Amino acid sequence: MKKSIKKTAVVCLAGITAMMVIACAMKHDLPQNLVADVDSSERIVNVFGPMEKSKPGMDNVARTAFDKTVSMAEEELKLTVEYQTYTAENYQERTYDEVTLDRVRNNMDDFYLLNPDIIQTLGEEGKLLDLSDLECAKNLRDVVKAANTINGKLVAIPQEVVAYGLFINKDMFDQYNLSLPNTPEEFLECCRIFKENGIETPVGANRWWLETFVFAQAFADLYNGDNTQAEIEALNSGKSKYSDYMRPGFEFLQEMIDKGYIDAKTAYTYEAIEGEGPDFIAQKTPIVIAYWGAANADTAYGKLDFEMQVIGFPSSRGQMPVVPITGYAICAGAEHLEDTKAVLEVILSDEALKVYSETNRVIPSTKNVEVDCISALEPLNEKIKENVYVLATNAGMKMEQWGNLCLIVRELLNGATVDECMAELDRIQEESVRKAID
Questions:
Q1: CA-based end-to-end distance of the chain
Q2: Would you state the pLDDT for residue 41?
Q3: What radius of gyration, in Å, describes the C-alpha atoms of the chain?
Q4: At residue 160, what are phi and psi to the nearest 5 degrees?
Q5: What is the Cα–Cα distance from 211 to 207, expressed in whole angstroms?
Q6: Where residue 436 falls among pLDDT bands split at 50, 70, 90?
Q7: Given this model, what pLDDT does residue 359 score?
Q8: Is the predicted pLDDT of residue 19 greater than 80, yes or no?
Q9: What's the predicted TM-score (pTM) here?
Q10: Which residues does residue 82 pair with via DSSP β-bridges, in sequence order?
Q11: How far is the C-alpha of 131 from the C-alpha of 336, rounded, in Å?
């Protein structure tokens, strides 16, 4: 547990926004600008991300949704958005996060799709433009502003809000006369009844997303109470400890492991959805963890032979969505700064986000567009509409959480004690506080 936690080992959230693009690596020590030579008279804006511009015949829904909004910008502004893409051919032995850090610091592109920890790092360094004055920023959901504001500056805006929840086989719950759980105690009771009735593993888990249980229990009061900013300031200064907030969630996970509600050994080897998904689809396990978009995707849980409900995670305040926020950010040293700002104004406008959300069937970042979701997602959607959520990423908190907590939970799966996990969490917090002071 004393080894350094590397945030870049976690699943790329920007990749989830682009339908789970996998982070790979890079052959060269220095970043490469792979932009083709273009006519100097042509107006160009360069975007770097995990997706290419879609080609005829391709049916990647996420790419199509983004491409539609980019096309709107190109047509309105009479310019071209060139895609610079993170691909295995060009980058080896370096993660998407490491590559974006290099490219932003070297002013290689105009705007980027960034993961939460990189938004936080580059925002603190002053490498990202303040987007607060953009017209599209006025209509943002509060959750986006809360997650991506650093020192009073809004440094990134996503096209969608990625909300995580519990995917429930409602038929199996009905079979055993179980109500959908609201609290940790109710959740454990459901697991006990499933286990006693022959369900070998009530909760299908992978090595990436179990931290969502911890976030829901740790921060339900912080984000839904009246003292949010003061509590965040106490955590940033080290006056309060993250471990005090998160210990109950870790103890909850440990109890699930001890009672066999989670198969820790197997979960440690599972990739997201690919590992636990087949058992959920086959109705061998009644509960899995996933993000909003997985309910719509036929390659995930969008095509099932049973009734599914997507609910929030158990907490003291009831079912709680967990929300990590990615975002598009403009390089502060962007070569085509004014054109880039104009592009973001278009692709993040209410009009464009309506197109994006209707194509992708996700929660748009603007509060002015209603989500037309499938019935399975209504419980989660209602919570988001009520501004009931817990942030798993917050650029205003000095310690990066999503990546660090993910890997600490993996240590728990691998046999570490709760006390050892809390000691590692304390170490990371102390390091972040020292860095902030320096």
A1: 25
A2: 57
A3: 21
A4: -140, 160
A5: 9
A6: confident
A7: 87
A8: no
A9: 0.84
A10: 46
A11: 15
